[in-house]
């Protein structure tokens, strides 16, 4: 059944998404001169910090480095499901 799904373009969406993310990281590395490991560590740290304050859709997060003029910009798209109440409230 896997062979039929692959022939019909129904490849496992998880594998396709992982491959796309890896390719995107390689392209970012080339553009921004940072390693894919660095960008992945940055993304994980952003997720960790934001998760303390908000409920987020971790599967849909996009963190990217883009060239703007003569500098590099960090661009993050983080879907928010809701806000957590502060412990002091």
Task: Describe what this molecule looks like in 3D.
The chain is α+β, with helices and mostly antiparallel strands. It contains 3 helices and 4 strands; from the N terminus they run αααββββ. A hairpin with a 2-residue loop joins β2 (62-68) and β3. The radius of gyration is 17 Å and the shape is globular.
Quick structural gist:
By secondary structure, this protein is α+β, with helices and mostly antiparallel strands. The chain has 3 helices and 4 strands. It starts with a helix and ends in a 6-residue tail after the last strand.
The radius of gyration is: 17 Å
Strand content: 15-25%
Number of domains: 1
Shape verdict: globular
Number of strands: 4
Quote the average pLDDT.
Answer: 75
Secondary-structure-derived class = alpha+beta
**How do the SSEs run, as a string of H and E?**
HHHEEEE
Annotation field: number of helices? 3
Distance between the termini: 54 Å
Strands, helices and their partners?
Blueprint: H1 2-7, H2 13-32, H3 36-51, E1 54-56, E2 62-68, E3 71-77, E4 80-83
Antiparallel strand pairs: 1-4, 2-3
Which terms summarize this structure?
single chain, 89 residues, alpha+beta, 4 strands
């Amino acid at each position: 059944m896997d062979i039929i799904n692959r022939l019909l373009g129904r490849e496992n969406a998880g594998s396709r998404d992982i491959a796309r993310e890896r390719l995107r990281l390689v392209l970012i590395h080339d553009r921004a001169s940072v390693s894919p490991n660095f960008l992945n560590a940055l993304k994980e740290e952003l997720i960790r910090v934001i998760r303390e304050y908000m409920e987020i859709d971790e599967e849909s997060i996009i963190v990217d480095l883009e060239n703007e003029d003569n500098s590099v910009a960090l661009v993050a798209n983080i879907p928010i499901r809701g806000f957590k109440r502060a412990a002091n409230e």
